[in-house]
Amino acid sequence: MNEALLEVKDLTVKYVTDLETVHAVNRISFSLGRGQTIGLVGETGAGKTTTALSIMRLLPERTGKVTGGEIRFAGQDLLAMPEHEMQAIRGEKIAMIFQDPMTSLNPVMTVGDQIAEALDLHNDQGRSREQIQERVDEVLSMVGIPPQRKSEYPHQFSGGMKQRVVIAIALACEPELLIADEPTTALDVTIQAQVISMIRELRDRLQTAMIMITHDLGIVAQTCDNVAVMYAGALIEIGSAEDIFLGGDHHPYTVGLFGSIPNLRSKAKRLTPIPGLMPDPTHLPEGCSFSPRCPHATEQCRTAPPAVYTRGSHRICCHLFADREGWKEDA
Amino acid sequence: MYRYVIKRLLLMIPVVLGVSFIIFTIMYFIPGDPASNILGVGASPEAVAQLNEELGYNDPFIVRYVNYISDAVLHLDLGTSYQNKLPVTGEIAKRLPVSATLAFGSIMLSLLIGVPIGVLSAVKQYSLWDKIPTGLALLVAAMPAFIIGMLLMLVFSLQLGILPVSGVTQGLKSYILPVISLGLPYGARQLRFTRSSMLETIRQDYVRTAKAKGASQKKTIWGHAMKNALMPVITVAGTSFGALLGGAIATESLFGLPGLGTYISDGIKLKDVPAVLGGIIVFALLFSLVMLAVDLSYAFVDPRIKARYAGRR
Amino acid sequence: MGETATVLREEHIEFKKPNQLKEIWRRLKKDKLAMFGLIVILLIIVMAVCANFAADYEAVIKLNTKIRLQPPSTEHLFGTDSYGRDIFARCLYGARMSLAIGFFSAVLATVCGSLIGAMTGYIGGRLDSIIMRFLDIVSAIPSTLLALAVVAAMGSGVMKLCLALSFTAIPGFVRIVRSAVLGIADQEYIEACRAGGTSTWRILTRHILPNAIGPVIVQGTMEVSTMIRTIATLSFLGLGINPPTPEWGALISEAKEFLRTCPSMMLFPAGMLCLTAFSISVFGDGLRDALDPRLKS
What we know:
A: Rossmann fold; C: about 75% helix
């Protein structure tokens, strides 16, 4: 890995309301090189979106709080940055594609204006009005929408087309980092494939680094260089795509995750779901948060939080790897 | 769009007819007959009976109603007031500008107070910028306009003597206190609606999208959220304007403004049936027109609604 | 498989709601403004009920022109009015009248409006469209004017006044309950109940009513405040409660002429009226938040 573009270290995020405290993200660390893609995988509620919003510094203002760790982007500490500097980074250097295209676009503003706004906000080159409009046309055709449609409103577009518009907004300023938060979950299966291949192609063309948040392992396999698996706010396994998809050693949760997907090639008669539910994030269990559901859990797992064990680029957070050959505890 | 407007205008007819019918029916039960009212206490029973016959008072209820409506529609004749023997239509035409000025001024003031403060308290939810204005708004909204009016009158007219106590003799200056006493409670209402509408809007995903583009707080609020939050604001302003046209009775009465409201309430006190009927019908007509204007203004705010209007047959 | 089932049952027990009323009360108690409102309302009710002990009704109506238009003193806490009557006593007895009319007409409107609303919403079809058209028409008349007209037709009297007032508020309740019934009847969980063979009666009582009752209670509470203000407005115009019966609006109306010479005659009843209306509104507001925490983030 060359110099890291994004470095997340010990990030901890809590949602605090007067009733309860939700431990959404617990001391997660990962880094991402320029032009690379990392997949953030996990069940709903595992803290993937919270991680993304923390990087964007768009956590719900009153409740969402980063209580520890740091996020460094191109060497700068994002969490320490004053809001107006952060505004200059949002949309220009780091852009985000949201989950639901149906609600992500302003219904009373034309599609063209919404793209132009991003360009207008980061108009460092001093583009004229006409130049901005030219760029809007360019971006629209890049995502496969005829530029004539820029004067239409979001309600005149289909779901897939709306998501293309959202992508166009995100890519208008050619960001260095793109965060795609389940960009295809709300779309039809046929459209999903189109949108994913388009994102991939544009990423390659623009040399953008990307965080792909999804619970679809197929998408991860298609797009990512590295994969991070999250469970109950913690990063339990991280490694290169080969480590995760081809390697033999995994966190028991990852094993379960792969077991939950139908595989046409293997002849298994039934899927093996992971028993139970994710723990209540307001009261995480002591020790390993996966221990209540883990088939290999021991007394140690229920009382002591596991350390991180590494082998090359592969990192796993599980007691099982304490004395496995080739794995050593991370300092 | 034109089709929609025409359709809506046609739909107003049954509403106004319905209003006239309801009020006509209510008035039917008011004790006393028109001739005794017109001729006064000293009139001979024969004269009363004859005038009642001439006025059609002895006709069946439904005939009287149909006659009334046909006169109103064909000749714009809403009858003659029992009280001052003047045509109701002319009297209403004279009083309407007073009511309209009062209503318009009050709505403008309520918007000036309610919208900016409402937005501010939504954006700064839970802070003092939110708590103080919303608390004050609750207090002011709980005060009847005539009490605010009396307090203002006490301070500005009686103690300081800088504004007239009553009447319209001093032109627009006479409207200042009435407009404030109505504008404050309606402004408080507007504030509360604007705030909740804004709170709803700033939680929307597209507001987050705007922030993700790098837009500042100010730009997201005024550029993205405001237009979306506008519909309830317009609706409240519209219904308030409608209600104020005829509903400012106590304020008109307190400040001695010769508006539509006092015309109707005096009519009720003096059992002046034509005045009451005419006044309320005109009021219902205006109210329906204002609500149509409100609905049409939605089309300028929201392209989806515009598309729906245009699509209607 | 067995293990999954156990875990699910445990989850169910864990998430089972605590007593709902207790939960609402707990949330309400946290809202300081609402609690302030509640305490003030209770105080005023107690004062109105116990008015006899503070002053004889005699003091309320007996004229004594020798001591007219006095400012507040230890003998007459709120001063005296233009007939030399004690304003404090009149305010107390006025509270009885205002509160009684306010509560009674609000309850009447709530009950009638909810029944009509539930009926039209549930039966639907032609009945629904006729009633809704009728309400559209009634809503085109401002409520004060409508109340005035009804009062004029029926003649004055406390009972008739209540009827007239509640008549104007009925459309609001019909709309609330109707839309609640329609909205809930369309929800998927009701669909699921139907598919599961739950009876209509059970759906109405167990699912639809509990969902509609919140907004109705809130609106009913707010309506008490509106009613108190409307009755005051009518009395102010000389069309509500007639003198010498004390009612806040009537007291204020009497004070109109003496605004310059004796402002206390207006200030005290006006203050009582505003305080009561304000307390009821803040309590209603707090109740809304407590009943439906979804509305509050």
